[in-house]
Write a structure and sequence with these properties.
The longest helix has 24 residues, at 3-26. Strands 1-3-2 form a three-stranded mixed sheet. Helix content is 59%, strand content 12%. It has a single domain (3-116), classed as Zincin-like, CATH 3.30.2010. Helix 1 runs antiparallel to helix 2 (29-36), helix 1 crosses helix 5 (88-106) and helix 4 (77-84) crosses helix 5. The chain is built from six helices and three strands; from the N terminus they run H-H-E-E-H-E-H-H-H. It is globular and about 40 Å long. The chain has 120 residues and is an alpha+beta fold. It binds zinc ion.
Length: 120
């Protein structure tokens, strides 16, 4: 992989880690516990043009909890990087928005419900 790509991925991963730490510190214990269950990975290439992130697996509900069903979240660094156009604040904003959007899917929210929360 291109060295520049590695650097962007690491930067986005640090934004994700900092935001997860903030959730752990500030959010309800219930939400923090749910968030801690899902792996969040940052990859460079998105499988589709303009895809910021994706959620894989079964949205969290009682059945998923009972079955221990796996889920994971992927953020696509190339899309976030291109959208931010070199603006550090925008890079942080897009990363956190994508993270919260995919966590919303994990909680079972659809795009209409995410839109009401400013996360579409
Ligand atoms: Zn979505």
């Amino acid at each position: 992989m291109h060295q520049h790509h590695e650097g962007v991925i690491e930067h986005i991963q640090r934004i994700v880690d900092a935001h997860l730490a903030l959730i752990k510190e500030k959010a309800s214990p219930e939400f923090a516990r749910i968030v801690a269950q899902v792996p969040i990975r940052v990859l460079w290439d998105s499988p589709q043009h303009n895809l910021y992130g994706d959620f894989f697996g079964v949205p969290l509900d009682d059945a998923a909890l009972a079955s221990g069903a796996a889920a994971d979240i992927v953020l696509y660094a190339s899309t976030i990087w291109e959208e931010a156009k070199g603006d550090a604040a925008e890079l942080q904003h897009m990363t956190i928005k994508t993270l919260m959007h995919e966590l919303g899917h994990y909680l079972g929210l659809d795009h209409e419900e995410l839109g009401h929360r400013g996360l579409a």
